[in-house]
Amino acid sequence: MFTISRRLARRLRAVFRRALRWPPRGPCPSVVATMTDHSLRIGARHKETIITFEQEGDFRPGELVFPLELLADCEAARVDLVTFEATGEGTVSAHWQESGIERSARRDLHSISQTADWPQLPGTLHANPGRLITALRNAEEAVDAQSSRFALGHIQLCGQSGQVVSTDGHQLLIQSGFEFPWSENLLIPPNRVWGHTELASAARVLVGQVDGWVTLRAAPWTLQLKVLEEGRFPRTESVVPLPASAAARCRLSPAELLRLGEALKSLPGAGDPSSAVTIDLNGHFAVRATSTALPDPEEVRLARGKPQGQAMRIASRRQYLERAARLGLREFYLFSPESPLLAESKHDRLVWMPLDPSVIVPPREVVAVTARRMAA
User: Is 146 helix (H, G, I), strand (E, B) or coil?
Assistant: First the structure.
């Protein structure tokens, strides 16, 4: 038996649903509640993902296994309490009070043997900054779950370099500055739970690995992910161009980067993330675009961005430039109209392929600047 708040029941259900993502018509995962004298652990598993919540307190030692639907039966935004206990009739009951009225719900008691194959937690966990969760969320946006040749649907955690690497074959995101307690490169599946506020607000993340499972703990949550052992991941080191070999480069201020991100939402074609924009480094940093509805070019110029090197124009998908701005990548490097682009910051690098030079939009003598559209 254990007692928690109905608000915690809602939090548990929300995080479990985000982390496990079982099919709508499939069986609901089992929730496993393990009580000791000093703690309560509530977890659930779907295939190769396990998510667990831990809370300290005084509890009667024992274990209950029940379907996740029981949390939905009793959850609420209220802080009043709900008690879970086995009835002795092959069911688990949840009972609480609502406006002075006794309420209860029952579900079938699941077999405790279902948890026998759950992996152990690592003996030691290595501390990382909370931005590791942000890095994993960013990495999820650059995977290709449909790839069959390479394991592009997974994220690579590089033990020696401390990097989080992801690619979909068109863009490559490398995020650095982490420490992983293993020497090899491990592949883990992406997970939408990294975008949930319960984990995204963590100031510290503990990381470990044992028996083919990676563990990430952002207290009070622990996520365990099965490592892909047979998958092939491309050698990304050779893809990243050297900044020193760039033909043109430009550094933007944080304010200019913010303005760039806003301008990309107003330039023609903004409704299509894959639409083309032209990056023009020629005495200034300019971004230009047209669309079927707005065939006359419009551009935004970032006055303080002073390019160095050759004058160059290059066509890019809008979504990659938007992403560079959103990630705070201030350094832009252009090599040729047919070569990959590079944007980087202290810890992160984004590499992406340009579009065919035939879609480059040349400047006009008079250009409709997007300022009026941004203010509209």
Answer: coil
DSSP 8-state assignment for residue 170: S
- Distance, in Å, from the CA atom of 12 to the CA atom of 140, rounded to the nearest integer, reads 22
Query: E strand or H helix at 267, and its extent?
Result: none
Burial class (CB in 10 A: 0-12, 13-18, 19+), 52: buried
CA distance 205 to 185: 19
Q: CATH for 2-115, among 3.10.150.10, 3.40.190.10, 3.40.50.1820, 3.40.250.10?
A: 3.10.150.10
Cross-strand bridge partners of residue 175: 164, 348
Interatomic CA distance for residues 40 and 44, integer angstroms: 14
pLDDT digits (tens, 9 = 90+) for 278-324: 999 988 999 999 999 999 999 999 867 689 999 999 999 999 999 99
The pLDDT value given to residue 366: 43
**pTM of the shown model:** 0.91
**Residues pairing with 40 in the sheet:** 35, 55
DSSP element (H, E) containing 148 = none
What span, in angstroms and rounded, lies between the C-alpha atoms of 318 and 265? 9
Closest Cα to residue 99, out of 84, 72, 80, 73? 80
Nearest to 64 by CA among 45, 87, 37, 97: 87
Full 3-state SS string of 27-48? CCCEEEEEECCCEEEEEEEECC
CATH number for the 126-238 domain, one of 1.10.150.910, 3.10.150.10, 1.25.40.10, 2.40.50.140? 3.10.150.10
Q: At what angle do helices 318-326 and 254-264 cross, to 10 degrees?
A: 150
**Tokens in use for 280?**
């023009």
Q: What is the pLDDT of residues 158-201, one digit of tens each?
A: 999 999 999 999 999 999 999 999 999 999 999 999 999 999 98
Residue tagged 């430009």 (tokens):
250
* 282: nearest Cα among 311, 249, 308, 246: 311
Tokens read off for 116: 């026998």
Q: Which residue has the tokens 């030079």?
A: 357
